[in-house]
Amino acid sequence: MSRPPIVILTALDLEYQAVQEKLVDPRPRRHPQGTRFEVGRLAGGRCPIVLAHVGKGNQAAAVLAERAINTFAPAALLFVGVAGALHSHVALGDVVVATHVYAFHGGTSEDDGFKSRPRVWETPHVVDQIARHIDRDGSWKRGLSAHDRGPEVHFGPIAAGEVVLNSKVSVHALWIREHYNDAQAVEMEGAGVAQAAHLNRSLPVVVVRGISDRADGTKEDTDRERWQQRAVANAAAFAVSLAEELSAEAQDDDRRTTETRRPTMPETIRNVAKGNARVGVQAGTVYGGIRITPEPVPPTDLAEALAGFRTRLQRARAGGHLDDDTYTAAEAELTVADKALESDTPQSRGTLTLALKKLRGLIGDVAELAAELAIIIGLAQGLS
């Protein structure tokens, strides 16, 4: 079963390039109306990615998000880019993942002043939970350049409008502070993307922003110091880890849905054995030959189960069921799982489960391996 794609949208060229660098064999795909998408896969993974440049502003983002949704039927939609911080605890280079997106320009003008009419879109609970687990695991930082300290991830509302905010005392700055005081960052596209996703059966959407300035009048200084490049690199690293997991989860959901729809046996047959006779088969209509084999005994030791799985993974590669790139990526996740199993902490158990889920995404097209790995994941989740 193929994995559903994840659409990633960006507004700036440097944002686009930061994501594009993480794709393997990206190929252009032209929409009839001229929009050019690039379709590829994440390096070291199986997640298909659709990448597009939408330009600045919520309106353009909404239109092209709708176009991407209708063309590719994605499992989720991510917007990746830079933003300005609205609170002092959010540092330059940090990543903000939206729990809510505010459209802060909505309101009505009356004789006694401008009254806010807020619009808000909330990130789905299951997506928020996955994003928080990725943050706790910390593996998304592996490919980042060394800085004085690693970027932190903040979860909170993001305010989206139609202006570049570069002041602490402007009308827009005071308006946001008064009506959207819990917003962690400010940007210009999240509301449009969230609205497009909402109108398409509430497609999951996540806004991931790297902090490149403080929205306080110092934007030119931080841009010269190349904080945009550093911030978007961090946001892209987190976003592709999230995309990989979202795609794997969507594939699992599709598989479970398919299994529940399988037809059941239309009748129940009861065979009664008397004397020394034994019942060999109980079935309705039997087609072809019958072979009776003992039920395999599920593994109970996780370390032994991983060792056995590694052996079968090698056989699958030798038999041509896995290509070299997929095998290498799968071996890397197995190594992460083995190291995590050596410790017994909540963090190591989380790392173990995440590595196994990534591994599941890599070998999902090989039914026998996927079935065995599902049992192993069950063992891992059962660790206390």
Describe this protein's structure:
- The protein has two domains: 6-253, 3-Layer(aba) Sandwich (Rossmann fold), CATH 3.40.50.1580; 296-384.
- It has helices spanning 13-20, 58-72, 125-137, 171-179, 190-198, 219-224, 227-260, 302-318, 324-342, 346-363, 367-381; strands at 6-10, 23-30, 36-42, 48-53, 76-85, 95-103, 107-110, 113-116, 119-122, 153-160, 185-187, 205-213.
- A hairpin with a 5-residue loop joins strand 2 (23-30) and strand 3 (36-42).
- The two termini are 32 Å apart.
- By secondary structure, it is of the alpha/beta class.
- The protein is globular, with a radius of gyration of 25 Å.
- It has a five-stranded mixed β-barrel with strand order 5-11-10-6-12, surrounded by five helices. The chain has a two-stranded antiparallel ribbon with strand order 7-8.
- Mean pLDDT is 86; it is low at 292-296.
- It contains eleven helices and twelve strands.
Question: Would you summarize the structure shown here?
Answer:
This protein is α/β, with parallel strands linked by helices. The protein has eleven helices and twelve strands. Residues 246-266 are annotated as: Disordered.
Blueprint of the fold:
Elements: E1 6-10, H1 13-20, E2 23-30, E3 36-42, E4 48-53, H2 58-72, E5 76-85, E6 95-103, E7 107-110, E8 113-116, E9 119-122, H3 125-137, E10 153-160, H4 171-179, E11 185-187, H5 190-198, E12 205-213, H6 219-224, H7 227-260, H8 302-318, H9 324-342, H10 346-363, H11 367-381
Parallel strand pairs: 1-4, 1-5, 5-12, 6-10, 10-11
Antiparallel strand pairs: 2-3, 3-4, 5-11, 6-9, 6-12, 7-8
Helix pairs in contact: 1-7, 2-5, 3-7, 3-10, 7-10, 8-9, 8-11, 9-10, 10-11
